[in-house]
């Protein structure tokens, strides 16, 4: 039986993405993949990662997936241990604030008003300030001076504020990072018109 001979070329080996796997204290499996970004002047570039957590629900990148590396300040409820009483988030001046999940403590002024200075509950020597007023229910934006000389601004631009249906600000996301030399990085967000998420 006559036939033709065919050369079979095996496929190239599939690549892999370098990442970090760990199991956190609650038993959730997490996997993080660093996202390469172009270098910025004097190191002024974001440190982004795509992160999977087995305990997370649906995210913008699929079930369990989210992006990390951009800081935010959000409203927090009052607690018995820190405030002497427990309460829910009210979207009023009674609310407290958290920086990336860590509670902010007012050290000079009242919570949520213009010019109040805060510190982080676990001391990081960052000086946090609230600025302006948004509908009388909290600050319009925040700024933070870190001990490494960087200044972060949160919620100054309208696309960096996540609001609820009543236009109360729920989350102030970082929109500008600057250093002492005048180098800066601006961050712009797209907002999901259905969920309000940035």
Q: Radius of gyration from the CA trace?
A: 22 Å
Low-confidence runs of at least 5 consecutive residues? none
The percentage helix is under 10%
Spatial arrangement of strands, main beta sheet: 7-8-9-10-11-12-13-15
Structural notes for this entry:
With 198 residues, the protein is an all-beta fold. The protein folds into 2 domains: 47 residues, no CATH class; 114 residues, no CATH class. Helices cover 2% and strands 38% of the residues. The protein contains 1 helix and 16 strands. The chain has an 8-stranded antiparallel beta barrel. Strand 14 and strand 15 form a beta hairpin. The protein starts with 19 loop residues before the first strand and ends in a 12-residue tail after the last strand. The mean pLDDT is 89.
In short:
The protein is an all-beta fold and 198 residues long. The chain contains one helix and 16 strands. Strand 1 (20-23) and strand 2 form a beta hairpin.
